[in-house]
Automatic annotation (TrEMBL):
Ranges of residues in domain C-type lectin: 45-187
SMART domains xrefs: CLECT (SM00034), VWC (SM00214)
GO annotations of cellular component type: membrane
Protein name: IDD protein
Pfam families assigned: Lectin_C
Entry-linked SUPFAM superfamilies: C-type lectin-like
Length: 256
């Protein structure tokens, strides 16, 4: 951060008193790895965060849950993004899945039935129109028996239990009755996260998640930029001390 060593150099304030900290303007934007709230996985390729919710919900309730966290049911823009999802170790409970080796969750596609004559025919659509770059899955496996009244089925992505298979990109697409309950995958834009794990809105000042509680940055497009650092002088009359990891210029003296 271009910090100065304040142990050997002090600023003199009014009356000759030594100031306890000094601010330094940082010319270049400061980048941090933490761009998602706790429990979310970050993918640089799409500047997005992903989270699997294991509390089983039907498709429409899952949509609302994702919207409440400023996201949507996940759709994918490229094979690389899908491979990222497959290689993650999601915190999944076995009891939420019928088979241990095959786990499925709702994603943001729907299968519209167009022909029921000899075989079931239809096409994929994105459930909620977003980026034009979203790709559509291949023909799915029909997960459940359909009633004659159903014209729309909802998409599930199969996530294999074995990492070696997932790293090879193996997966399947299923269609299910939208009112069945299932785990689901939410996707949201990357965001700024402060040192106390709070989400920060665009344009606000905050201290980023990390090991420096004396940074103050502006949240811009989900990243901390134009940061200013306060540098603290060591506490007077204390030989051994510990810095507070969450508050700037706060120390605990460890002397007897």
């Amino acid at each position: 951060h271009g910090k100065e060593n304040m142990d050997s150099r002090h600023n003199r304030g009014r009356g000759g008193e030594t100031t306890r900290f000094h601010t330094v303007n940082v010319a270049q934007p400061v980048r941090f790895s933490r761009k998602c709230p706790t429990g979310w996985h970050h993918y640089e390729g799409t500047a997005s965060c992903y989270r699997v919710y294991i509390n089983g919900e039907n498709y429409w309730d899952a949509v609302q849950t994702c919207q409440r966290v400023n996201g949507s049911l996940a759709t994918f823009t490229a094979d690389q993004e899908l491979r990222f999802i497959l290689t993650q170790e999601w915190d999944l409970e076995e009891k939420t899945f019928v088979r241990k080796d095959q786990r499925r969750f709702w994603v943001g596609y729907q299968y519209v039935i167009t022909n029921r004559n000899h075989s079931l025919e239809g096409h994929w659509e994105v459930a909620y129109k977003g980026s034009s770059e979203v790709f559509l899955p291949p023909d799915p496996s029909i997960g459940t028996a359909m009633s004659a009244k159903e014209n729309v089925l909802c998409a599930q992505l199969q996530y294999l239990h074995f990492p070696t298979l997932r790293r090879r990109g193996l997966h399947s697409w299923y269609t299910e009755n939208c009112y069945e309950k299932s785990s689901f995958l939410c996707k949201r834009s990357q965001t700024c996260v402060d040192i106390k794990d709070n989400i920060v809105d665009e344009g606000y000042y905050f201290t980023p998640k990390g090991n420096d509680p004396c940074l103050s940055c502006t949240c811009h497009n989900g990243e901390p930029e134009m940061c200013v650092a306060a540098l603290c002088e060591r506490p007077q009359g204390c030989q051994q001390y510990r810095k507070d990891p969450k508050e700037c210029c706060k120390f605990t003296c460890l002397d007897p």
